[in-house]
C-alpha cells in the first residue's frame, strides 16, 4: 500500500503542464523580422517605440505565437507579442505601461521592423522547444495540492525537489518558476529569465513573470536571488 506522501506525489505528476521553452541563439537567424527575438521587435507603421518618461523603451522580447508548440489560452487570438522595457530601471510590481509595456497584434499584416536602440544587450533569435513535464515550485504547488504529507516525509520532500522538472529560463505556458516565494498560478502566461547570451539580467539572476487577467490586463512581477 502506497504511503500518503507517495500518493500526493503521484497526484502531482498528474498535474504537470506543457510549456514552450526558449532556446536563445545557437542557430542561424531568419531574415524574416516577424519571428521570435530578444532585442528586436516590430510595430505597425507609424507606431514606433513606446515612450516612458520622455525616453523610448526597447523591445526586450518578441514572441511569434504560431511558433510556440504550447499556446496559453490568453494568447489564442494573438499573432505576435512584443514586451518592451525601459532603459533606466526594472519597474518591479509597477502597473502595465509604467516602465514596461506589452503590445499584442491579432495579425502579422502591416508590421514592420522597429529601429534598434543602443543598449548594453545583444540581440538573439529564439526558438521554442516543447516540454510536457513542467512542475510548480513548492509554495505555488500548495495552490493545487495539500503537501502536508510530503512536508512530513523527508524522502518525499527530497523527491519533490529532485525528481520533477522545473524550467527557470524564458518560457511560455507551464508554471512560473519561483525563486523566493510563490509567484501565483492564476492567469500566468509567460516568464523571461536572466539570459546570459543576451546580457540580460533581472537584478541578481532573477525571473520576470507576466500574467494576463480574463479582462485583458497584464501584470508584471519579479523575483531574484
What descriptive keywords fit this protein?
single chain; about 220 residues; mainly beta; ten-stranded antiparallel β-sheet; two-stranded antiparallel ribbon
Q: What's the SSE blueprint?
A:
Blueprint (H helix, E strand, L loop, with lengths): L3 H10 L3 E8 L12 E2 L3 E3 L6 E2 L2 E2 L1 E7 L15 E6 L14 E6 L5 E3 L10 E11 L3 H4 L6 H4 L2 H9 L8 E3 L14 E6 L13 E6 L5 E6 L2
Antiparallel strand pairs: 1-10, 1-11, 2-6, 2-10, 3-9, 4-5, 6-7, 7-8, 11-12, 12-13, 13-14
Give an overview in words.
The protein is mainly beta. The chain has a 10-stranded antiparallel sheet with strand order 8-7-6-2-10-1-11-12-13-14, with no helix packed on it. Strands 3-9 form a two-stranded antiparallel ribbon. About 10% of the residues lie in helices and about 30% in strands. The protein has helices at about 5-15, 140, 150, 155-160; strands at about 15-25, 35-40, 40-45, 50, 55, 60-65, 80-85, 100-105, 110-115, 125-135, 170-175, 190-195, 205-210, 220-225.
